[in-house]
Amino acid sequence: MQRKLFLRYLGAALGTLALTPVLTACGGGNDLAAASAQLATSTAVATTASSATTAASLSIEEIAGLKFMREEEKLAHDVYVALYSLWGANVFYQISLSETTHTEVILALLTKYDIEDPGATTALGEFADPELQTLYNTLMTLGQVNLIEALKVGALIEETDIRDIHEKLAITNAADIVMVYTSLLCGSRNHLRAFNDNLIKQGVTYVPQVISQEEWDAIANAPAETCGGALNR
C-alpha cells in the first residue's frame, strides 16, 4: 500500500517536474515513508495534469537507458541489503533506503512513458539483464570476504553508477529524465563519500576502478550535497 501511494504521488509530480522533495533525500538515506510524505506535500502545488506521453516520444537508446538504470539502482539496493545483513554496518542500511527511492523514481518514469518494467517480477538479487546478474553475483562474492571488502564493493557500485548516469545523460534531452538522472548522480556522489569515509575509518585508501583518480578525489573531497536543490531554482 505504501509503495502504491508513493508511485501515485510520484507520477503526479513527474507530470509537472516537481521531483525535488523526494530526490533531495538521495544522500541522507531517508526511508520510503518519509520520501512519500515529502512528495505528497509537494503535489499540493502541482496542479497541472501530466500530458499524454508514451515510449514513442523517446529514442531506443533513451528507453534502454531507463530500463538499465531501473535495474542498476535495484542492484545497488539489493547488494546493500545483503551486506547490511552480513556485516551490520549502518552505511549499508541507510544507503539501501535511498536506493529504494532511486529505483522507484526510475519506475515512475517507466510508468509515465508506458515502458515495460524489467524489475516487475524479479526477486531480491535477481535481474532481467544477464550482465547485471553476473555483476551482482560477483559483487556479493567480494562483499562476503570481510567488512573492508564489502565497503569497497559499495564504493565500486557508486563510481560505476556515476559513470553510467553520465552516459545516460548524454543521450537524452527529455527534461524529466534529465532531472531524475541529475539528482540520482548527486545521490551517488554522496553515497561515494559515505563509503569513502567508512573506508578511511578502517585505515583504507580506496583506489577507483571505474572513474579517474582525479574525478574520485574531486567528489570525495567535496562536502555532502543537498540533492535536487539546484533543480528547484
Summed up, what is this model?
The chain is mainly alpha-helical and 233 residues long. It has helices at residues 2-15, 20-23, 32-42, 60-87, 90-112, 130-143, 147-169, 175-201, 213-220. It has one domain: Ferritin (Up-down Bundle), CATH 1.20.1260.10.
Task: Name its key features.
233 residues; mainly alpha; Ferritin; 0% strand; globular; disordered N terminus; disordered C terminus
- The radius of gyration over CA amounts to 17 Å
Q: Determine the strand fraction and express it as a percent band.
A: under 5%
Instruction: Calculate the terminal CA-CA distance, rounded to whole Å.
Output: 33 Å
Helix and strand run: HHHHHHHHH
The third-level CATH topology is: Ferritin
The mean pLDDT is 82
CATH homologous superfamily heading: Ferritin, core subunit, four-helix bundle
Name of the CATH class: Mainly Alpha
Low-pLDDT windows of residues? 1-52, 229-233
Sheet/helix structural class: mainly alpha
Shape: globular
Helix percentage: 55-70%
Instruction: Supply the CATH architecture.
Output: Up-down Bundle
Number of strands: 0
Total count of helical runs of at least 4 residues? 9
Number of domains: 1
**Sheet of most strands:** none
